[in-house]
Sequence to fold (529 residues):
Amino acid sequence: MNKLKIAWARAQDLLSGDQSADRVVPPSGYTSSLTSFVAGAMAFLSVFALALSLATGRLAERWSNELANTSTVRISAPEGQAAEQAKIALEILKVTPGISSARLMTQEEQRRLLAPWFGDQLPMENLPIPSLIEILEDSQGPDVQGLKLRLAAEVPGAVLDDHTRWRRPFVTAASRLRLLGLISIVLIFVSMAAMITLAAQSALSANDQVIKVLRLIGAKNSYIVKAFVRRFTIRALLGSTFGTLFAMLFILFLPRVAEEGAFLTGLGFRGWHWILPMFVPFLAALIAFVATRIAAKHTLQGPS
Amino acid sequence: MIELKKAGFSYGDGAILADVNVHLAKGSFHFLTGPSGSGKSTFLKLCYQALMPSAGTVKVLGKDVRAMTQDDIAMVRRRIGVVHQDCQFLDHLSLAENVLMPSQVSGRDVRDDLTNFNQLMDWVDLMDRINALPAELSGGERQRAALARALILSPDVILADEPTGNVDWAMGKRLLGLLIELNKMGKTVVVATHDMNLIREAKSEVPARVLRIQNNSLLVSGADL
Fold:
C-alpha cells in the first residue's frame, strides 16, 4: 500500500510538479513532435487492434453458441419410407435427454435453404431431397454418440450432424484473429517503446550541452532524468490521447449494415468495452515514462 | 578546501598533469597560469570533478573524489562556483532563469534566493538585463552573469577559467575586482589566466599565490608577485 502511495505521489509530482524543471530542456526539436506523433499513431492503431480483437472475440463466441445449440438429422430414405423414418426419428428425439425440441422442416423451409444455390423456383417435389429435422438442444446437450447409435439402429437412413465439423474451423479462425489482435497490440506498444527510446536518446544527445551545464551547477542525475522523463511522458500522453480519441470517433461512426454483414462491420466496441480504449493513453504514457527513464539513466551513467 | 597529492591526469598515453601537490586553503586567492594547452582547465576540472585523477588523490571539501557518487559530486558542486570563459548558459532561458538555475536544481525554494539574486544583480550591475537571453548579452555582461550564477548558492570556492578571456581590459579589471571582493568575504578563489598583466594588477589588492603549470608540473610561487 505504501509503495502504491509512493508511486502515485511520484506520478502526481511528475505530471503536476516542477514546471520550471520542464523548462530546462529546450522546447524546440523534432524529437518532441516525433514522440507525440508516434504515440498518437500507435494509440490509433492499438485502438483498432483492440476493436478487432474484441469483435473477433464476440464473433467466435456467437458462432460457437449459435452452432453449438443446434444440430440436424438428415434422413435419406427410399421414396415412401422417408415420412415413416422421419416420424420414428422425431419420436426418438423427443424422448432423448438434452434435446429441448425437434421438428421436421417443411419443404418451403428447405427451399429457402437451397435458394442461394438453386434459386427459389426449385421443384422440391420432383427431387429426392432428404428430409431434415432441426434439433434445438438444451444447455446440457444430448449424448451425441449414444444418439447416433440409436438412430443408426432404428432409423437406417438418418444421419445426425451436430455441426462440430462446421463450427470448429470458424471458432478456431475467430480465436486466431482475436489472438492476432492481442499480439498486434503488444507489438504496437513494444514498437512505441522502441521509438520513444530512440527519440529520448536523440534528445539527450542533442541536449548534451544542457546536461553539462546542469551538472556543472550541481544538478543530480535524478533531476536531469526527471526533466526529460516529464517532457516525454507528457508528450506521449497528449499524443496518444488524441490518437485514441480520433480512433474511437472513427469506430463510432463506422457505417452500420444488417447483421449479415456484421463480420466486417461489427468492428467496434459494445457496452463497457468502450472503457477499454481509454486506458491506451495511460499505457502509452507509462511506456514513455519507463522508456525515457531507462534511456536517460543509461546516457547519464557516463562521467560528469 | 581542495587538496591535490601526487595527482596526475593523462588522456591515454599523453600526460597533461603529473605529480601535482597543492593545497587551496580556505579564504586563499590563487592565480593559475601557464601557456595555452598547458593544463589549466584540466587542473580546474580535477577540482570540480569534471575529471577524475589518473594518479594520486584529490580531496575536495574533505572528501576523496574517487569515493564520491554522482550525487555526492552534485552536492559538492553546489558549494563550488565555476565560471567558464564561454559562460555555459542555457541559451533558451533568460538571464534571471540562468542565474537562479543552481537554486532550482538544488531543490531550494527559488523565492528564498530572490533577495540574494537582487543583491547579486545589483553587484554585477545587470539588474536591467535580467530578462535578456544570453545571446543578447555582451561578452562582459555574460561573464558577470556567469559570476552571479556561480555565487547564487553562496559557495565556499570560486573557480574561474579564463574569466577575462573574452572581455576588454577595463571589463577584465572590473571582473577581477569582483573576484577580489569575494575573496575578502572569505571565499576561496582560483583564477586561471595567462594574462600576466591581470595578475600584476591584482598585486596591490590581494595576497595571491601563483600556480604555474609548466611541462605538466605545477610550480607554486608565494604571495610576493
Q: What stands out?
A: The interface with chain A takes residues 48-52, 70-71, 73-75, 77-78, 82, 88-93, 97, 101-102, 104-107, 110, 149, 153 of chain B (CB under 8 Å). The mean pLDDT of chain B is 85. Chain B has seven helices and ten strands. The first helix of chain B runs from residue 40 to 47.
